[in-house]
## 1
Amino acid sequence: METKKVINPANKLLQERSSIRKYNKNVKINREELKNILHDAMTAPSSLNLQPWRFVVIDSEEGKKLIEPCMMFNHIQWETSSAIIAVFADKQCADYTEKIIGEDIRLGYKTAEEGQKYIEKIKTYTSSYSPVKLSNSIMLDCGFVIMQLMFSAKNYGYDTNPIGGYLHNELSAALNMDTDRYLPVLLISIGKADEKYKDTNRFSVDEITQWV
Ligand SMILES: Cc1cc2nc3c(=O)[nH]c(=O)nc-3n(C[C@H](O)[C@H](O)[C@H](O)COP(=O)(O)O)c2cc1C
């Protein structure tokens, strides 16, 4: 196993994130702070900058009750977290192409001509996607935002646990999500840690890397 080396603040954040499953129930993260955490996370890259991630933040008692039957073996996170963030991938993200590129033009990041060309490029490219390619692409993008969300939370003094063990269809139904459009990706519990970090090992770089 490789030793963890803390070199700079970013590296510290990487080394100090670990899954926390039990939180201090008395610490409630307010919506403004949750919005800031999401805002920072959304600097994540995405294919063609289509940003297919959609969030449902479950931070009320009623909301928590709605999703309780979907939590499988992850009850402790459900019970103690300040919020659970459900991440969905929007299969219709390309519908927002004009809005996204229009904003780039308005902000002076692209000229009108560059923007128009880019819009054409996105439309041509995305219209050739098979359903599997589309799902893979938007799920991958959501993976980036989720990772950033977990680091962002840490930056604000909170901890998280990515949760894949939940009843996906039931959760979509409980949250009234259109299942033809939104793919369930992952839940993230967030709160103030009320347990020690548990170390988990990683492969060494040499075990899993080839050099060509
Ligand atoms: C896609 C995904 C799904 C996961 N699902 C669960 C889960 O359902 N319950 C849980 O307690 N942890 C879950 N985890 C957390 C992993 O168990 C954890 O990340 C891994 O053991 C490494 O530990 P660390 O996060 O502390 O570094 C999941 C992680 C990922 C990336």
## 2
Amino acid sequence: MEDPGYIYATKLLEDIGAEIIRVPVDDDGMIVSLGIKNAENAKLAIVTPSHHSPLGMTLSSSRRVELLNWAGVNDSWIVEDDYDGEYRYSGYPLPSLKSLDQYDRVIYAGSFSKTLFPSLRLGYVVVPQKLVDDFTEKLSLLRANYSFKAQLIVNDFIAEGHFSKHLNKMRALYAERRELTSQCLADVLEDRIEITTTKNGTHFVAKLRNNESDIEIVNSFNKLGYGIHALSNWTTDTVRNGLIIGFTNVSNKKIAESATIDLRNAFLRFNA
Ligand SMILES: Cc1ncc(COP(=O)(O)O)c(C=O)c1O
């Protein structure tokens, strides 16, 4: 697992008793060579190559090849979690691991949570040929949890061209909301934070410049009804701290400003 990495995937793996090896990331995503060094015989690697969760960088081409070769040689699996790859505001995406996967070791997972809405509870996986029977069997045990009606509606929504129009519209809207939120944070919190993450996705990470506790600031801020995350809860790296902030529902300047002032007050309470 990437370190930092998606907190709910980590918790789920812990819950099923998996032995988790955390692999540090840098500006090119997971440091695959370190992963191989520390866990050569891992059964599974879980990665977010198009937009690292939560830091936002892209897994480089050479590391994609390195990871695929590792899985091919070791008969290991890779989960490619492409949870928000639709939201790129500049540049072109690199080819997915799945599309480069000559060994058929990649389980590609996507979700409509961010492109439509989370309570739809609809996602999809593209599985290696060898796993189709296993997936079909396991899925039949979860029958109660999926709705054909929602799938049919989403199918028509895509087939009739509405989905791609919707994505184009949301890309422009979210790019604006990202700008609005980050600008407001920079104006109000000035040199307390630094937003370093790439301009993609539906959230960014604001690094804390002073030695403040992201957990305490987040807890104090979220008491007002917000739902941001503390980066240090997503990592074993004690040096990393920051605020993971979703911006897609920040619909105007007034909302951005009042949320930012609430956040500044959480900083002030911490330093009081
Ligand atoms: C890293 C990551 N993976 C997967 C998901 C998909 O979650 P779901 O489809 O269960 O809503 C999310 C949602 O936020 C995510 O952030």
